[in-house]
Structure formats: C-alpha cells, structure tokens
Input
Amino acid sequence: MATIAVLGAGKIGEALLSGLLHAGRKPEELLFTERHPERSAELTGRYGIAGVDVSEAAKRADVLIVAVKPQDIEPVLDELAPLVGPGSLVVSLCAGLPTALYERRLPEGTPVVRVMPNTPMLVNEAMSAVSPGRHATPEHIRVVEELLSSVGKVLEVPESQQDAVTALSGSGPAYFFFLVEAMIDAGILLGLPRAVAEQLIVQSAVGAAKMLAESAEHPVILREAVTSPAGTTINAIRELEKHGVRAALLAAIEAARDRSVELGKAHEED
Ligand SMILES: NC(=O)C1=CN([C@@H]2O[C@H](COP(=O)(O)OP(=O)(O)OC[C@H]3O[C@@H](n4cnc5c(N)ncnc54)[C@H](OP(=O)(O)O)[C@@H]3O)[C@@H](O)[C@H]2O)C=CC1
Ligand SMILES: O=C(O)[C@@H]1CCC=N1
Output
C-alpha cells in the first residue's frame, strides 16, 4: 500500500486521514505535517498517525497531499521544491490554486494532480473531482482516484472546471448545513422542541439525499411528488420563490466560483 502524507492536517486534511482510516488504511501508512506541536500531538493521540516534518514526509511518502489554506501555500512550495521531482506525486486540495503554480515552483517534470474534495469524506461520502497537471500521467490519476474512491465518489474534470466544482461540491455541504440550520430554526418558530425539530429535519435530509442518489428521477419530479394540489408544500414553495431563494443560490454559487478564481490569481505573479 502506498504511504500518504497530508501536508497541513486542518479540517479537510483531518477529514481525509480519518476517512482513510475508516476505509481500512493502517495508521503506519499515513503521515501528516502540522505547524503547531499541540495540534500535531492532538492528531497523533486521536488517530495514532505520526506527525513529521516536510522532509521526512517527502522521504517516506509515495503521495504528498497539500491541504494548507491557499494563502499559506508559498512556504510549503519553498519547502517542497528541494525535496520532490519527477518521481514524486504531489496532490493539491487547495481551492483556486492551479497545477501550473506548482509546476512553476517545483522541479521540472514533477507530477501534480489538482483535487477538490469535500468534508463528507469523514463518513465515506465525499465528492472529489480530479484534474491532471501537465506532467501527471493516467497512472498518477489512477493512484489518486483509487485513494479518493475509498472515501467517496470521484470524477475527473478538465482543470478549467475546477473553480466551478469548488463552488458546487467543495463548498456544497456548507449550503446544505445552512439550510438544515434554518429549517430547524423554523421548527423552533413553530413551537417545537429543538431536539424534535433537529430529528425531523436531519432525517428528512437523509431521506431526501438517499432518494436523490438512488432513484433515477429528476429533483423536479421528486419535489412535485411532495407538492399536493392546494396542499401545504405549494404554500411554502410560493414563499421560497417570492423570497428569491433560487436566484440567491445562483448568485451565491457564482460568488464562490469568483472567489476561487481570485485565490488562484493571487499567485499569478510568482
Ligand atoms: N474545509 C473544506 O471543506 C475544504 C477545504 N479545501 C481546501 O483545503 C485546504 C485546507 O482547508 P481547511 O482544512 O478548511 O483549512 P484549515 O486551516 O483547517 O487547515 C489547514 C491546516 O494547515 C496548517 N498549516 C498551514 N501552513 C502549514 C505549513 N507550512 N505546514 C504544515 N501545516 C500548515 C494549518 O495550521 P494553522 O491552524 O496554524 O493555520 C491548518 O491546521 C484549503 O486550501 C481549502 O481550499 C478543499 C475542499 C474542502
Ligand atoms: O471555503 C473554502 O475556501 C474551502 C474550499 C471549498 C470548501 N471549503
């Protein structure tokens, strides 16, 4: 089994490590780097995975997965440059950062794969989109897809689509959590105890997600099946349309896409 090192084990890095353990990887096959010793000790205590420095990670790992904030990429590239080359495999999870940035800053021929995952990898239900850089071969993509398919679904997309993917599925879980949070508040408004409202909405979300994933029906058909003539649901739908919820989602996701583009542009002058 390949050894995998996660550089920057924050929220998504930890989700990946935890998901890989859940999927049957052994702690010895995993490594991480973290800049704060307390965070490193916390993760080793929780998962039994060793925290190492970048040079140790580059020496021992077959796959180096960069999971720092895009704003923190510069020192990571400086540290990686003398340690990697054509025989390495660098995977970037960073929103907005193009493979061309890595290719410019790392030795000629270093294979880089850009990935946009999401946090449901914690429960083996991630959606990850992968795009090869200039020096990544189909074999590199196969290795990355195999790794990610152990924690969810994987799709290959052209890199030009990665900013849109980031806005849709990278950030997507946050939109659903936001919606659930607001719906629970509606239950409170209607006088239900919070625990009851939570159970009603979370199970409705799980059921709806399962129907979306498992039935061949379009979401419109599934929604229409809930919307009885002169019933309750259509009254709610009228309010959602009146308040521009559809337009708000289009604008929100477009704004997320724009931010992803901007994060990449911040490094264009390197
Ligand atoms: N969160 C998500 O749902 C998703 C995030 N991503 C991408 O993943 C990346 C990380 O995001 P997220 O996990 O949310 O952010 P976090 O800030 O939670 O995680 C980044 C981690 O990297 C650490 N770090 C920073 N610099 C270094 C360094 N030089 N060496 C080692 N560790 C370092 C940070 O430490 P410190 O706390 O000190 O800053 C932090 O623990 C981003 O690029 C984001 O775009 C992609 C898909 C989904
Ligand atoms: O909010 C962010 O920038 C990251 C990228 C996608 C999800 N979280």
